[in-house]
Amino acid sequence: MPLKYRYEEFTWPEIRDAVARQPVAVIPVGTIEQHGPHLPLITDVLTATEMARRAVERIPDEAILLPSVFYAFNEHHLDFPGTIAIDGTTFTNYVTDIGRSLAHHGFRKILLVNGHGSNVPFLDVAARNITNRTDSICAMVPWWNLVPKTLLKDLRESDFPGGMAHGCELETSVLLYLRPDLVQMDKAAQDINFQKSEFIYWDLEAGSPVFFQEWFSRYSKTGTVGDPTKATTEKGRRFVEAVLERMIALIRDFRAREIRPRVDHHRGRP
Ligand SMILES: [Zn+2]
What CATH code is carried by the domain that includes residue 182? Predict the structure, then answer.
């Protein structure tokens, strides 16, 4: 029988035994929000979950997959129907509590796999909270950071910046590969209408030097930012496979990472 890897399917004695082999606890985090007229509200949950699931499934003795966090921070999308927004402090505390529980049970390495751009600052704080307040360490990775730059150079057809931002060439390709039944390509349209400046723009390949986020409806008519018309299933397959390879390497690297002892320099003065 293949090894179990979904946390919620374990019994408590099985979790106790699993902790002994110190798997990395992998938590996918998405959001429920509009992704243009062609992609479903679950897009960011689906990408983070499915990439994390496929990675953990391949190395079930080294990692364990937690149930996904569905709801997150996206207040700026509320002008579009369907979006469910959680206050940033609530969201940060919620994820911190999940990590603290895992640390309490003895999981020493916790990895947040993020599928939503605006989760980044909050998950960064949650990961720091977990690391600072427990004996465990927690890190966060947005999945698109694991797409190799060389692959983007080969596959990307949309303009930079803007072509890969939201419901874009990248996300739509990934969805076409993972869940083609949920993609309505006949409704996909290019929407790169934000005010382009040297300092402020949106793109998943590389962020702008300035952190800024305003109401999404101020710069997108359709709910998309990017060019989903350039998306294909084959690009999606290559993006996902590349991310899986990097994610497995990351899980192994993080699992092997030494947690060095803290040193309290208040004491020990001559
Ligand atoms: Zn998204």
Answer: 3.40.50.10310
